[in-house]
Amino acid sequence: MDDAEVFWMYEPHYIPYVEPAKAKRYTPDFILENGIIIEAKGRFTAFDRAKHLLLRDQYPDEDIRFIFQYDNKISRTSKTRYSDWCEKHGFKYAIREVPDEWVNEPAKSK
What we know:
CATH class of the domain at 37-99: Alpha Beta
Structural class: alpha/beta
Helix content: 10-25%
Strand order of the largest sheet: 1-2-3-4
Number of strands: 4
Largest sheet: 4 strands, mixed
CATH topology of the domain at 37-99: Restriction Endonuclease
Order of helices and strands: EEHEHEH
Radius of gyration: 24 Å
Strand content: 5-15%
């Protein structure tokens, strides 16, 4: 090998790094005086459903409940209704109006 020749090693090692997590913000539609969060929904999309599962898992002490305009199916081809999804995942819900029981429910200590 000639002294003028230079060799570089290809991918000799790695350098670990972390990509910053995508920070998102959730803005509740309404918060009752007792701290219950009300999310009012006309359409309840797959994105919304995934977001609320993440919120429930990351903030288990928050009490998020849904008010649906109608108890629609989650998609045209599904038999699952919005209410079915809520029951399966442990969310309280109502159709068209906030129940008086929710408004009169005492605040939970966190």
